[in-house]
Amino acid sequence: MALTQEQKKQFKSIGHHLKPVLIVAENGLTEGVMAELERALNDHELIKVQFRITERDDRRALIDELCQNGSCELIQVIGKMALVYRRNPKPNRNLSNISRYSGL
């Protein structure tokens, strides 16, 4: 499902206040990282991911791979932070960042 510009704008404003839930280091997308990504997206829908990789091209390739493997949509990249979203059909209102911050 493609997001509209209005939705992306809203998600960016919500994401501004979030802290990184997942940190990806030099080892890349390990099995543990992917399991934590799956858990975080199921719980929160919108998450911030920090990449501890210095090379910009490597970091961008890893972000694209993360979005493809995690079936999530990239909202924004600023420096070493990426904001990603995946809709949960049955979100938990207490955990979902979308529900908590937008009042949906």
UniProtKB/TrEMBL annotation:
<feature type="domain" description="CRM">
    <location>
        <begin position="1"/>
        <end position="97"/>
    </location>
</feature>
<dbReference type="Pfam" id="PF01985">
    <property type="entry name" value="CRS1_YhbY"/>
</dbReference>
<protein>
    <submittedName>
        <fullName>RNA-binding protein</fullName>
    </submittedName>
</protein>
<dbReference type="InterPro" id="IPR051925">
    <property type="entry name" value="RNA-binding_domain"/>
</dbReference>
<dbReference type="InterPro" id="IPR001890">
    <property type="entry name" value="RNA-binding_CRM"/>
</dbReference>
<keyword id="KW-0694">RNA-binding</keyword>
<dbReference type="GO" id="GO:0003723">
    <property type="term" value="F:RNA binding"/>
</dbReference>
<dbReference type="InterPro" id="IPR035920">
    <property type="entry name" value="YhbY-like_sf"/>
</dbReference>
